[in-house]
Amino acid sequence: MIQSYDDYKEAVKTLKKWAYAYYIEDNPLVTDEEYDRLYREVEAWEKAHPDLIDPDSPTQRVGAPIKEGFKKAKHLSRMWSMEDVFDAQEFEAWYERIAKQFPGERYYVEPKFDGASLNLIYEGGRLKQAITRGDGVEGEDVTSNARTIRSIPLTIDHQSLIEIRGEVLMTLKEFERINRERSERGEPPFANPRNAAAGSLRQLDPAITARRNLIFQPWGVGVNDLNYEYLSDLMAYIYDLGFRKPPVREVCTTVEEIEAVYDRLIKMRDSLPVMLDGMVVKVDRIAVQEALGYTVKAPRWMVAYKFPAVEKQTRLKDVILQVGRTGVITPVAVLEPVEIEGVIVERATLHNFDYIEKLDIRIGDMVTIIRSGDVIPKIIRVLPQYRTGKEKKIPRPTRCPECGSELLDEGALIKCQNLSCPARVVNSILYYASKQCMNIDGLGEKIVEQLYREGLVKDLEDLYHLKLEDLLRLEGFKEKKARNLLEAIEASKGRECWRFLNGLGIEHIGEVASKKICEVYGLDFPDLKREDLTKLEGFGEEMAESFVEFMRINRDKVLRLMEIVRPKAPEKITIEPSPFTGKTVVLTGTMSRPRSEIEQILERHGAKVSGSVSRKTDYVIYGDDPGSKYDKAQALGVETLPEAKMWEMLGEG
């Protein structure tokens, strides 16, 4: 029995030791009954002595009040997506691109867990904040819920600021238990463990999250002041802080070694308690990661090597046509329902009509479909041995299924060019009004459909011609609601250039690409040429072609809309000539002023400030305790300057 504060502290220490063995090492030291007995004793003592509760007590993982909603929170550094490859040929092509530039490098290999990404921020050794991935820049603050996950340490033996990234997982056993309980209550079951984990993490009541027995599996770090040469050593340090280790982690140097780990993981996947959907391969040397850099969406130094997809056979009942936001017609297969990895599949993509003709897919055929992780189910082959002669060929459409307009057939792509097509108008306005674009509050799906149905809005420009009397004659609109909507539309005028550009819904041009275009070219973007775009970091031919083709067709409409909206161009930087004008510089180490302030000063003097060192870097400017960027500069022969020398060259010595 706990009789004193010292007894209580010892009991808390024991509980933490038992919990670590159970949740981190998968090696229980005592029975569940013995753990529960001591837990209840600690709980009773804390109830009697609320002023003496240890914040690290296991009982404190639950108990936050129920939230009304989640607040948005920004990551300290961006959480990137990953490039996917699906077979040995695609993986080897990725490997060769790296090896050609950096031969003989090491690669860090670990499983790819199928869960919900989470970013943990520790400061002063304590868990400060937990943020869902969101769009990679901003997510939802789920700190109260994260504290209930017993494989997330509340304190670590690392005092400086650090972001630890990982995946929140649900075991297959727990997934089955929760779905069984949901079915008994008449609630719909979760589709798969990943959806169940994501839903559990976002519960407004942390007590519900606590009951879901989630697991946190780290896979990387964001902001940190660690100075490791290799990622594998850095991650070993993270695991030693008290986090779960993955079942497999290897350092490889050849394709053959990596493929051997891949084969081993495929054989292991069915025996593991959680779902894997592939393997992650990362360049191990951190300096080389920085030199390789990033595309608009993903690091160039890592790739997700996905497991072979699960195949099933079913019958193709029909084909329906969907008109996308950009007007592309996509054929969608209607299938006899079939279960794949716990998901009932009734639809599958047919890509385009060239694909249908290549495989000779017909309505009534028995077909093989695959689904792998988040990949949309797709038909990969026809089984002609089951044909009866009653199957029907699928003709290429010549008219839009939504508006009846003549379609433009470009081979692989068939497009509706009618800008008044209802499928395009409604979806385009919804996207334009969304938070990541023009953020027009109150312009939801039902209202946009109502405005279109009543003939008030036939394109984006019509939004800005709406009048109070137009809205007041609509069902459900009273004066306050109508005025609020008109004020929200009016408030969208003068929004940032990138928001306007992103809101146009150009295929392959999202938020990140829009920001880059506006940052470099400002409001001159309607007249950009392919070569202007391919100069931008991370832009390929496909993105440039998509942008230029969109503007060729819609330039006049975009210019008229810009006249109304008056999007705000980024502030032009007045260049003050200096020795850094036209030079690429990288900062590393602790500086005498905030890093962001120094970057602005250098940019004002004509420098391009980069986050990674390469052979194209002109200077690496370093402060106290420079890290791997300094080492990389030395290895590449890039000139290094102490911070004091930089100020001297800027005339501020």
Q: How would you concisely characterize the structure shown here?
A:
The protein has 22 helices and 24 strands. Helix content is 36%, strand content 20%. The chain has 6 domains: 5-61, Helix hairpin bin (Helix Hairpins, Orthogonal Bundle); 83-306, DNA ligase/mRNA capping enzyme (D-amino Acid Aminotransferase, Chain A, domain 1, 2-Layer Sandwich); 310-393, Beta Barrel (OB fold (Dihydrolipoamide Acetyltransferase, E2P)), CATH 2.40.50.140; 422-491, 5' to 3' exonuclease, C-terminal subdomain (DNA polymerase, domain 1, Orthogonal Bundle), CATH 1.10.150.20; 497-565, Orthogonal Bundle (DNA polymerase, domain 1); 584-649, 3-Layer(aba) Sandwich (Rossmann fold).
Number of strands: 24
**How many domains would you count in the coordinates?**
6
Radius of gyration: 28 Å
General form: globular
Describe the structure.
With 653 residues, this protein is an alpha+beta fold. It has 6 domains: 5-61, Helix hairpin bin (Helix Hairpins, Orthogonal Bundle), CATH 1.10.287; 83-306, DNA ligase/mRNA capping enzyme (D-amino Acid Aminotransferase, Chain A, domain 1), CATH 3.30.470; 310-393, OB fold (Dihydrolipoamide Acetyltransferase, E2P), CATH 2.40.50; 422-491, Orthogonal Bundle (DNA polymerase, domain 1), CATH 1.10.150.20; 497-565, 5' to 3' exonuclease, C-terminal subdomain (DNA polymerase, domain 1, Orthogonal Bundle); 584-649, Rossmann fold. The protein is 36% helix and 20% strand. Strands 2-11-10-3-9 form a 5-stranded mixed beta sheet. Helix 1 packs antiparallel against helix 2 and helix 16 packs across helix 17 (511-521). The model has no long low-confidence stretch (mean pLDDT 87).
